[in-house]
Amino acid sequence: MNSKGALFHWIGIVVILVLAFAIFSPVEFGVKPKGTWQLDFLQYNFIEGKKQLADADQLALEVGRKTVLSLAEKGGFADAPSCGSDGEINYWNRGQDFCFLNVDESVNAEFNSLYKKYDKTVSFTVSRQGKELIGKTDKEILLGQKNAQFYVLNSGFRVNFGYDFDEYFKLQDQAKKMVNECKAASNIQDCVEKVKPSYWKFSSCENAQFAAKGQKVHFCVESPEKYTIFENGRFVPVQYKFGLDFGMN
Amino acid sequence: MTKILIKNKKVKENWKRNFLTFFPKEKKGLMDDFTDLLSFVLIISMVGFIAVVVLRTDASDKTEQTLERIASFQGQEALLDLVNSLALLEDKEVVMKDVIISAVNANNEALFREKMQAYFEQQQMEGGVGVYDSVSYGTEEEPTPLLSYDVVVFNGEVIARGKEKGAIYLTNVHGEGNKKLLVVKLFS
């Protein structure tokens, strides 16, 4: 073969070698999918984060609802008040001294105490805004840890459960008025019957019956705004249970 | 550069000689080289053609993959919209997550279907939704849903369940056993 013609053979061999290298080498040739990083980010971080937040919000909503019902059962106190208690009934006053409700503190304590049943590792600073409950926490959810990249999600929440804790202040004002008007009454039952709003019931909301222990009377008060809380498939009316002391001391 | 070099007479002659010897004087050799050249051009053309076809197909496949992934996000967004949407129960507003969880706990398929139907009709959506307990969802290949709703049914039977558009886990605080964690899936 002519030595000049051999040049083309060599070029052919080189082309074959290059092709073989392209096929067998681990390096990827060809077109790369567009927006891989962006799509990975959306899938493993943004969408996944939204899913986790949807679940976290639902859990917070459920715990918030339990908080409302649990606090109402205890007259708004997360812990036993200094005014004393009789079994599960907490007293709002001792004589003329009222144990002022710190609703925000109670909500925060009760919510965290109930939330611990589902997740012991997290603690929230819970505040309220109208009918919304807002929870802030330092705990972060780590998502989509891929290579050195990761996405951190704050696991706080903001849920609306259609209930306003300000109702306690309205009830407390009514309680003060009743205690003031009936503290010196010879017949507490008659006096309270006259001054109390219709949604205030003695002892039980279902079967109202006056019962006094000395000067102390137990009440079950139906929500003035007729709030109900959705609990396990049904709407439960909010009923506040507490006691008032009509004694002079 | 060449121009500078060929200014020198000796170099100019050398270059001319070399250029002429590039084409051999013998006809046989000329034919061989011409065949080689032709083969080479043919190979290069074929390789080029194949490369272009492969790259174009590859590009088309990759674009399709990207579009599929984008479409899957829309499906997952649709699922999030569904579970976060508002629903009416006893004339009061709750979120769809409440409806799903309540229906599972009370094993109330009628309630689930009614609310899903209302939502699918309102959103003019097609496909279906299924709720599974997380244990069977994670272990079985084709788990039986606790509750399901499908738009495409014939004589009460689902004709064909479409592709999964998205799945979400929901904590069921009132649930017991396997039902403590649910999986909601949306189908196309």
Could you name the key traits of this structure?
heterodimer; A: 249 residues; alpha+beta; 25% strand; B: 188 residues; four-stranded antiparallel beta sheet; two-stranded antiparallel ribbon; 6 helices; 8 strands; rod-shaped
Percent of sequence in beta strands of chain B:
15-25%
**β-strand number of chain A:** 15
The helix fraction of chain B, in percent, is 55-70%
How many independent structural domains of chain B?
2
The low-confidence parts of chain A are none
Structure classification of chain B? alpha+beta
Mean pLDDT of chain B equals: 83
The biggest sheet of chain B amounts to: 4 strands, antiparallel
**Could you tell me the mean pLDDT of chain A?**
87
Q: Kindly report the greatest chain-chain contact and the residue count on each side.
A: A-B, 37 and 49 residues
Description:
- The complex is a heterodimer of chains A (249) and B (188).
- By secondary structure, chain A is an alpha+beta fold.
- Chain A has one domain (36-245).
- Chain A is 38% helix and 25% strand.
- Chain A has five helices and 15 strands.
- Chain A has helices at residues 6-24, 36-73, 103-115, 167-182, 188-195, and strands at residues 85-86, 89-90, 93-94, 97-98, 125-129, 132-136, 140-146, 149-154, 157-160, 200-202, 212-213, 216-222, 228-231, 234-237, 239-245.
- In chain A, strands 10, 11, 12 and 15 form a four-stranded antiparallel sheet that branches. Chain A has a three-stranded antiparallel sheet with strand order 5-6-9, with helices on one face. In chain A, strands 1-2 form a two-stranded antiparallel sheet.
- In chain A, a hairpin with a 2-residue loop joins strand 13 and strand 14 (234-237).
- In chain A, helix 2 (36-73) crosses helix 3 (103-115).
- Chain A is rod-shaped.
- Chain B has 188 residues and is an alpha+beta fold.
- Chain B has two domains: 10-76; 87-187, no CATH class.
- Chain B has helices at 2-5, 9-22, 27-84, 96-105, 109-123, 134-139, and strands at residues 86-89, 92-95, 128-133, 147-150, 153-154, 157-158, 164-171, 181-187.
- In chain B, the strands form three sheets. In chain B, strands 4-3-8-7 form a four-stranded antiparallel sheet. A two-stranded antiparallel ribbon of chain B has the order 1-2. Chain B has a two-stranded antiparallel sheet with strand order 5-6.
- In chain B, strand 5 (153-154) and strand 6 (157-158) form a beta hairpin.
- The longest helix of chain B has 58 residues, at 27-84.
- The model of chain B has no long low-confidence stretch (mean pLDDT 83).
- The A-B interface holds A 1-2, 4-5, 8-9, 11-12, 15, 19, 30-35, 39, 42-43, 47, 50-51, 54-55, 58-59, 61-63, 66, 118, 162, 228, 230, 232-233, 235 and B 22, 24, 29, 32-33, 36-37, 39-40, 43-44, 47, 54-55, 58-59, 62-63, 65-66, 69-70, 72-73, 76-77, 80, 83-84, 89-90, 92-95, 97-98, 101-103, 105-106, 108, 168-171, 173-174.
